[in-house]
Amino acid sequence: MKKRILASVLALSSAAMMFAGCGSQTDSSTDTAANTGADAPAASSGEPVTLKVWESVDGPDKWIQQAGEKFTEQNPNIKIEFVNVELGDSTSAIALDGPAGTGPDLFAAPHDKLGELVVGGHILPTADADSVKGQVLGSCSSALTYDGTMYGYPTSAETYALFYNRALISDDEVPKNWDDLYTWGQSFREANPDKYPIVMDVTSIYYTILFTTGNGNRLFGASGADTSSSYLNTDDAVNGMKMFQKLHDIIPVASADLGTDTADGAFKAGTAAMHITGPWNVASFTEAGIDFGVTTIPSLTNGGDPAASFSGTRGMFVSAYSDHPEEAAQFAQFLITDEMQQLRYEITGALPSTNIAVDSEAALGFIAQLDYAFPMPSVPQMTAFWESSGSASCNIWDGADVKTELDALDSAITANN
Predict the structure, then answer these.
(1) Gap between the Cα atoms of 174 and 170, Å rounded
(2) CA–CA distance from 275 to each of 34, 214, 279 (Å)?
(3) Is 172 helix (H, G, I), strand (E, B) or coil?
(4) Percentage of residues in the chain with pLDDT exceeding 90?
(5) Tens digits of residue pLDDT in 365-414
(6) Which of 6, 63, 324, 348 sits a CA distance of 20 to 30 A from 156?
(7) Closest Cα partner for 345 from 133, 157, 170?
(8) How many whole angstroms separate alpha carbon 302 and alpha carbon 41?
């Protein structure tokens, strides 16, 4: 079965537009062109140019290299040089390397860093933004809009969801809410003392934020832009994080030993029945021979909707320090053609930013979760959020008073308001 992305992210689009400050977007289903590689920007006729592009390894690198070769076939005077700078490092790196003249022409970054990049003057607005908005999903263009202006070119949409190992738990046994998961987990641990009912990175608020979202509670409020409060110490957030803390009973592992590598490794080794992670793990779990399914995250309440996860848009941004901004924008626009989006999906498994069909079971699971996801805010205060939240998540998992930790976290995030 194939399913197009667009219908599953309309709710995300509306939520994103509230904090992004832009109007409704034209979805890609209304485009008059097929938007394939043949519709890429016209070839440049200038002097020879080499564009330096920062991206991550383990998939995105192969995509950039293959896309670069295809782009150069159409634009012989422009060559693409891939340089490995991981997604989480690019924002801080551009602030140093850009002014020094050693930075890239184009670089990948997550949309929640948009406010920081704009305020710092590190990126240029999207060239021909109206055309780009009509080319990509509305949720993605909204996520890359700051104070009414679009920056960058969205290359993928993503969220995380619940993986489950069919050798340890059947499709119909997968719990629908966290209370049922806790009960099932107790029985599973008794029967399988050498295995875990569920694993996740408990040290990262990127994942544990889901427990704070009961009754529509959201980071920086419903709009994602109310920086007067983090909304992480509300009653809903406190009650949800107590539910998170309770999971320690069925996953008796200290936070120091339950980060991403450990959680991924346990699921890959077949010692965890469930795992909350993203599409970047599909290939490695498949290669490990795990027969897994992907579904929505359990609800925080009995009979409620799946818990809300963070959604992210990965963007390619033209550096404000580039000597070749027009050529960089040209390559970025090439990356969001349907042909290149299909290539990225085939290489990385990441959800496309354009309305192309996907047909894998795992992708459909992530699309289902996207209906309940909310965009990471892109306000500059996100830097303080990321810097302060990890220790709070760890401390709560290890038994600290939830309200005390969340009050301190809220103060740290809003201290400079």
Answers:
(1) 7
(2) 38, 21, 12
(3) helix
(4) 75
(5) 998 898 898 889 989 899 899 999 999 999 999 999 999 999 999 999 99
(6) 324
(7) 157
(8) 51
